[in-house]
Amino acid sequence: MDRNRLLTEDELAEQLALLKGWKAEEGKRIAKSYVFPAFAEAVAFVNRVAGIAETMNHHPFIAIDYRRVTLRLTTWHSGGLTHLDIDSAKAYDGEQNHLLDKE
Questions:
Q1: Counting Cβ atoms within 10 Å, is residue 85 exposed (0-12), middle (13-18) or buried (19+)?
Q2: Among 8, 40, 41, 57, which residue has the fewest nearby CB atoms (within 10 Å)?
Q3: Cut 0.85: pTM above it
Q4: For all residues of the chain together, what is the average pLDDT?
């Protein structure tokens, strides 16, 4: 499978149905906000996201607002959403679950 191929509208809808809390923005990006118990946990999550992004060589837009972290994903060189974005979203959700399970 070519992870950099643009998703069709149907493929995107199918994938979003499997992702909890991720929303399409203008059909070009997906976004999700995570809320943590404290600022330190939010920053710890961002650091883990950074590590995953480096490994995948696919970097999200990240906004930190105290306990809220918002991630936005798109595949710039493909001009929209690809399986790489979906795979990244799944990985980030896994990290959030891992951090919250430790509490």
A1: buried
A2: 57
A3: yes
A4: 92
